[in-house]
Amino acid sequence: MRKRKPKKRILQPDPRFGDPMVTQFVNNLMWQGKKTVAYQIFYDAMDIIQEKSGEDPHESWKKALQNITPGVEVRSRRIGGATFQIPTEMRPARKISVGMKWLIRYSRARNGKGMAEKLAAEIMAAAKGEGAAVKKKEDTHKMAESNRAFAHFRV
């Protein structure tokens, strides 16, 4: 076990929107240390959203993240030879992180021309409350609800 908790790293805000959460999103989006490429993909997706919907892309991205972030998750715990799925509350930082990762994962799984278009399509769908990432959140909440009987095993 650790002696003390590691310090939380402070992320620099991104150049266009001045939002550290965008930097966190781009860090999750990045592959093989290509941060400039990841920023380009994100900003291209923002431009596509601006063009197609006519709304503020940063606001629609935030709304999409809000619609995706889960409140509870199920964790496996072994008790007396049986494995139970125990619903647990999520820490606020983890909620955001998991939401971002789901948005990126389901954007990559989408079919489209480039990653920017896929990401833009998933963000617009999530902002409306549709799409695979929103479905994942609903499935997670349903699973937690159905396993509510085991909540008393919580760690």
Question: Any chance you could write out the topology, listing elements then pairs?
Answer:
Blueprint: H1 20-29, H2 35-53, H3 57-68, E1 72-79, E2 82-89, H4 92-109, H5 115-128, H6 132-146
Antiparallel strand pairs: 1-2
Helix pairs in contact: 1-2, 1-4, 2-3, 2-5, 3-5, 4-5, 4-6
Question: Can you describe this structure in just a few lines?
Answer:
The chain has helices at residues 20-29, 35-53, 57-68, 92-109, 115-128, 132-146; strands spanning 72-79, 82-89. It is mainly α and 155 residues long.
User: What global shape is seen?
Assistant: globular
Number of self-contained structural domains: 1
Output the CATH class name.
Mainly Alpha
User: Architecture, CATH level 2?
Assistant: Orthogonal Bundle
Please indicate the percent range of residues in DSSP E strands (runs of 2 or more). 5-15%
What's the SSE pattern? HHHEEHHH
SS-based class:
mainly alpha
Order of adjacent strands in the largest pleated sheet: 1-2
Helical amount? 55-70%
CATH topology: Ribosomal Protein S7
In whole angstroms, how far apart are the ends? 17 Å
- Mean of all residue-level pLDDT scores: 92
Secondary structure: number of strands: 2
Q: Main beta sheet, described?
A: 2 strands, antiparallel
Uncertain runs: none
From the alpha carbons, calculate the radius of gyration and give it in angstroms.
18 Å
For the record, what is the CATH homologous superfamily label?
Answer: Ribosomal protein S7/S5
Put simply, the count of helices is: 6
